[in-house]
Amino acid sequence: MKVRFLASDLDGTLLTTEKTITPYTQEVLIEEQKRGITIILASGRPLYSILPYAEQLELQRFGGFIISFNGSLVWDCAEGKAIKKQAIPLSLIPELVAAIGSEFRIHGYKGNNIVVQGKPDEHSLYISRANKMPLIETNDFAETITEPQHKCIVTGAPRKLWHLEKRLQKQFEADFSICRSESFLLEIMPKGIDKADALRELLERVGGETKELLCLGDGYNDLNMMRLAGVSCATQNAKKQVKQAATFVTKSNDRDGVALAVEKYVTL
Known about the structure:
Layout: E1 5-8, H1 23-34, E2 38-42, H2 47-56, H3 59-62, E3 65-68, E4 73-76, E5 81-85, H4 93-100, E6 105-110, E7 113-117, H5 122-131, E8 135-138, H6 141-144, E9 152-155, H7 158-171, E10 176-182, E11 185-190, H8 195-206, E12 213-217, H9 223-228, E13 231-234, H10 240-245, E14 248-249, H11 257-265
Parallel strand pairs: 1-2, 1-12, 2-3, 7-8, 12-13, 13-14
Antiparallel strand pairs: 3-4, 4-5, 6-7, 6-9, 9-11, 10-11
Helix pairs in contact: 1-11
């Protein structure tokens, strides 16, 4: 079956370590869109920090899509509007903050800013830089957050965060979907949210099939969409589990891995 849809993660996959799309990769992806391929940018990032990359790849012109917050918000680039929105209700935020405690940092979104409970740690600064969104420090996260959240982020030491993840999954089983994108970063979304589910729903909406989908990723939150796709590709820098789940492995994100994979498996 010919590939008609290309879904790519951003950080560690499409983007270099410097958070850029190389000119070569940009050229390849624009050429593929001219041939009829639909590009879907699938990331845990907020929409605000994905849109510049969508503009660089001309997704509005070619009718591409953005899956942001791991699937909590899906954006139609051609129409310039959200076609799916799901959020954590404000009523659950105080209970979540209490369950996390003061040992970790919880982050949320307010406008185009990132709110962090307590003094920002090194991971808070990483999130801020990567998304180009300023930090707002607060001692009362639940009070500062004024709108339902598409996603909350918790940062901390990897081993301690692993134990927190298990505890939160048990305590909030009916309320949240929880996953890792990095060892130090825990992502909390509304129940049922996942990149793979968002992709499946989007394909149904546009009349596509999963066997026509090529997925590219590197992180733990890419695993399910890799398993969903007809063909999947992990970058050389991907987590071990992601490489094992992928159909094949391409070069790293700093060596045009996405472009090389597309040329090999899409440009036939």
